């Protein structure tokens, strides 16, 4: 059984993730006005159409491409020795440190603490009408998932097929898809919580919501 309290303490001790920025293809690298410690913004907008902070440009065959920060954080390290040199695709250019938000901490804890039932293939998924009606009226935690239970309708290529839950019995604690979403194979559909961990997970969620300090 996962010790969710211990997991929270481990995240508190290291409240960030590091992301490597790699050269997308071969070309001449020129870094922007950033250095270790520089705060950076991530891509924004509904479709992430607004690029984040410019980190560098890479030029190949007289075509320049911007390399921007994919997320909010700060520059942890920068390969300045590569400035104005020709690099290969995949060359490590920089490392960003992204401090976890409250929502990201909760997502990380839940995905490790819950049993994740995943999409068997790329398709749209819907709850069967009986379960969908109950969830809309009382929320997903009103449903107890049982092995072999018919739970979803999988819609693909204008064909529909039932999907049966397989896994430990428990309460549906989290739902990871929305109506009309197309999910890739192995993406989680639901997170199921064993009854004996339900209150513990609730307590940890409340702690995160009240105690977690967001980084500017």
Task: For this entry, give a set of tags.
single chain, 216 residues, alpha+beta, OB fold (Dihydrolipoamide Acetyltransferase, E2P), 2 domains, 4-stranded antiparallel β-sheet, 4 helices, 16 strands, 21% helix, 38% strand, globular
How many strand elements? 16
Structurally, the number of domains stands at: 2
CATH-defined fold name of the largest domain: OB fold (Dihydrolipoamide Acetyltransferase, E2P)
Shape: globular
Q: Specify Rg, calculated over alpha carbons.
A: 22 Å
Q: Return residue spans where pLDDT drops below 50 for at least 5 consecutive residues.
A: none
What oligomeric state do the depicted chains represent? single chain
Question: Which second-level CATH architecture of the largest domain applies?
Answer: Beta Barrel
Protein structure class: alpha+beta
Structure description:
With 216 residues, the protein is of the alpha+beta class. The protein has 2 domains: 4-99, RNA polymerase II/Efflux pump adaptor protein, barrel-sandwich hybrid domain (OB fold (Dihydrolipoamide Acetyltransferase, E2P), Beta Barrel); 103-211, OB fold (Dihydrolipoamide Acetyltransferase, E2P). Helix content is 21%, strand content 38%. The protein has helices at residues 4-13, 102-113, 129-138, 198-211, and strands at residues 16-22, 27-31, 39-40, 54-60, 63-68, 73-78, 86-87, 92-99, 115-118, 123-127, 144-145, 150-156, 159-164, 170-175, 182-183, 188-193. The strands form 4 sheets. A 4-stranded antiparallel beta sheet has the order 1-8-6-3, with no helix packed on it. A 4-stranded antiparallel beta sheet has the order 5-4-2-7, with no helix packed on it. The chain is globular.
């Amino acid at each position: 059984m996962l010790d969710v309290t211990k997991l929270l303490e481990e995240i508190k001790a290291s409240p960030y993730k590091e992301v490597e920025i790699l050269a997308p293809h071969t070309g001449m690298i020129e870094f922007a006005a950033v250095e270790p410690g520089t705060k950076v913004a991530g891509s924004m907008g509904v479709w992430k159409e607004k690029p984040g902070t410019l980190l560098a440009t890479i030029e190949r065959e007289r075509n320049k491409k911007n390399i921007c920060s994919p997320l909010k954080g700060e520059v942890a390290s920068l390969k300045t020795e590569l400035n104005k040199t020709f690099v290969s695709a995949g060359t490590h250019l920089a490392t960003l440190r992204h401090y976890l938000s409250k929502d990201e901490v909760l997502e990380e804890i839940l995905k490790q603490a819950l049993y994740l039932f995943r999409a068997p293939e790329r398709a749209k998924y819907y709850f069967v009408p009986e379960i969908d009606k109950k969830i809309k009226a009382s929320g997903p935690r009103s449903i107890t998932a049982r092995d072999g239970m018919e739970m979803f309708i999988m819609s693909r290529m204008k064909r529909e097929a039932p999907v049966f839950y397989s896994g430990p019995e428990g309460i549906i604690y989290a739902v990871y898809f929305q109506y009309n979403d197309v999910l890739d194979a192995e993406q989680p559909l639901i997170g199921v919580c064993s009854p004996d961990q339900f209150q513990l997970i609730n307590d940890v969620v409340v702690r995160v919501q009240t105690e977690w300090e967001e980084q500017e």
